[in-house]
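note to self: dont lose this again. the chain is below, predicted strucutre after it. 75 aa total, dont forget to put it in the shared folder this time
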Amino acid sequence: MNKVIKIPYDQLGPEILQGLIEEFVTREGTEYGHTQVPLEQKIEQVKSQLKLGKAVITYDEDTRSCNIVPKDKLS
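---
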């Protein structure tokens, strides 16, 4: 059974948070449709969603990986 832990974004150091967000927004399958959105804008959008509580950082103990997911997608 997957054990997923929510990690408060403000508990991560700035470099770690930046790296996690950059990896997330450049991951395959996170395209923004036909419109090209600059990387910095994507990063700021994700930071804003984290700060507003619309997205959360999760850590999966089984896969030892982090992800950023919309809050309403958490089970």
